[in-house]
């Protein structure tokens, strides 16, 4: 599988070479994409994020091949890493949300994309009115973050938008992310997942891999890999259907189904499984009234909500701890929708539930239900 060597000792694979060639040389602008994957997210984009995107240089936006947005909450002053940052659109948007005291680092393996991103650093700092630069770009691989010079335990948040599926070694990606996150840090990422482990025929199909289908992970394997690496159990945030409207490709895929899903994984201590009651104080920008933490928990300001032990640990050990008041379980609390069940949510089951609820119930994600595929 190995092809050429990169700096730092990490070896390119044939997959890396193909992906770099496609996103660096074949695609010159968003319109060159061969599918309608890169569509607006199904959830409305908050006004403050829309404003931040408007300030990004047009060429950076034109050379961006991601689908939708992956923007977690509570970003002020944070250090963020964007895996597979491409032309830098999301980095420059996040630069405004973290503020001048925060910092955003983008890492990508494609020189052509990085050239575009780096060209406009000074332009954006001037546009944002910053006296010092709070964005930087690094060439490297998402499987080798420390080899690329990124320090261990140095980031508050890592984001990724439909990039992990393009890696042949997902466990190494998660392990590297865990390594460079601070204690209490979060990996918040959107990706494509399958309804079962894919066949070798599918995984070796170049078109399906390039379209972010061939490299899709079985969603249950994400749970296993996250646990092996050390993360808390993944919390499903959003999900949306991916359809492949090509008969030849569909015949190869057979009965496999695919979903675009956003998960949040935290680097928090293990062993604390005590539930508690929490009160959201409304202090997070953009979600002052309601904070949707995941598909099971939405916190309404000043309401008392009982959470399970996993969520209690995350909220008390992460950047969200100042945004909640915590108290022992047992007092009166508001129901958080249906009573959350213990264990991880099946994204395909979630979509079935949403279909039964009717139009307008989609939970978002980086692809709409009309998308052909989801790619970065």
Please characterize this protein's 3D structure.
The strands form four sheets. Strands 3, 4, 5, 6, 7, 8, 9 and 10 form an eight-stranded mixed β-sheet that branches. The longest helix is centred in the N-terminal third of the chain and has 13 residues, at 14-26. The chain contains 13 helices and 15 strands. 30% of the residues lie in helices and 22% in strands. The chain has 376 residues and is an alpha/beta fold.
Distance between the termini: 22 Å
According to DSSP, the number of beta strands is 15
The helicity comes to 25-40%
Query: What global shape is seen?
Result: globular
- Given the structure, what is the number of helices? 13
Proportion of β residues? 15-25%
Radius of gyration over alpha carbons? 20 Å
| Major β-sheet annotation | 8 strands, mixed
Order of helices and strands: EEHHHEHEHHEEHEHHEHEHEEEEEHEH
Oligomer: single chain
Low-pLDDT windows of residues: 1-8, 22-42, 360-376
Summing up helix and strand content along with how strands pair, one would put the structural category as alpha/beta
Mean pLDDT: 85
Produce a short descriptive summary.
It contains 13 helices and 15 strands. The relative contact order is 0.14.
